[in-house]
Amino acid sequence: MNNKKGKKGVLLVNLGTPDQPDTPNVRKYLREFLMDGRVIDIPFAQRWMLVNLIIAPFRAPKSAAEYQKLWDERGSPLKYYGEDVRDLLQKELNGDYVVALAMRYQNPSIASGLDELKKAHVSEIIVVPLFPQYASASTGSVADKVMELVRKWQIIPNIRFINQFADDPMFIEVIAQRAKKWMEQHDYDHYLFSYHGLPERQILKGSVGSQCQLGKCCNNYHDKNRYCYRAQCFLTSRLIAESLGIPEDKYTVAFQSRLGKTPWIQPYTDEKLVEFAEKGYKKVLAFSPAFVSDCLETTVEVGETYQEQFLEAGGERWDLVESLNDHPLWIECLKNLVLEKAS
Ligand SMILES: C=CC1=C(C)c2cc3[nH]c(cc4nc(cc5[nH]c(cc1n2)c(C)c5CCC(=O)O)C(CCC(=O)O)=C4C)c(C)c3C=C
Ligand SMILES: [Fe+2]
Ligand SMILES: [Fe+2]
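^ thats the input. predicted complex w/ fe (ii) ion below
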């Protein structure tokens, strides 16, 4: 080999999606997903009973119906945009890099992505969990799985994890550009930044030295709450709002998709949207900046379910800013993260 340093590998990892939008495939996906101890962080036996006897059997048919709304001729957007982004990033990085795509749950698996990189004899692996804000249930789980697999290798290459990019200027810029298209066409009364929720205890468990007191600390992002998911969500929202000239009193940060009975981080999106209608807001533009591609949580939950609820509560217009998907600046942003270049 001429190049003594060898190629470097990039492993892009998103959450995962069912193979098909039918009940058996959704059940299989939910089982793998929710049996992850970083997602449902309770003792194994309790988790097993909750997932296998309650959530998977009852939730699977309902979720499958939602997935059918999401599916299009190319399948699940989370997967096909992942494939597009992998191919575009491979073109952008020169031949010194091999880019592989993996999903934390279901397919293509992290094991198959790592295998691809191993076969390419990469000297280093850069793992990019496709979650802008760090959470143990998403980013942490990807790192956990990669380490579980790689620790069995005879030769362990250098590995670098990109743990968050909540304030990356190019990431912010793509969302702002997508939003401008809507803002040029409509005069919105209010803007909503809706993020995937988390059980409160998961944030508190990561709060070293108890610096994170939910609701009190998250507006202020600093080195001690750097990995507080809620604080990062506020940070992303503030940066997008600043970039679009949206004043503080015209936007709200909220959290969606709670599961189970324990408290999740607040405020809750479904409660906020009713409050918006009660306050007389007629036109709302929603952002989903926890997701890099359109998926069930964005297109169906925010774009359809919350839209219906807002209109029923008296609102007149509810639009959703598309995710980063295959935007050229998003590919540029990933390239910079991999090359450790400032955006
Ligand atoms: C921002 C990243 C995500 C975090 C953090 C996260 C935590 C988390 N999720 C659940 C439960 C469910 N999430 C579901 C779908 C889903 N979640 C994310 C991302 C994060 N989840 C995405 C991108 C998706 C959509 C995937 C797709 O195929 O489009 C689902 C399945 C759908 C449903 O039945 O509603 C569940 C369940 C928990 C419990 C949790 C943290 C504790
Ligand atoms: Fe989720
Ligand atoms: Fe916090």
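The pocket of L6N33NVT (ligand 1) is lined by residues 15, 17, 30, 39, 59, 63, 76, 78, 131, 135, 137-138, 196, 198-199, 257, 259, 290-291, 295-297 (CB under 6 Å).
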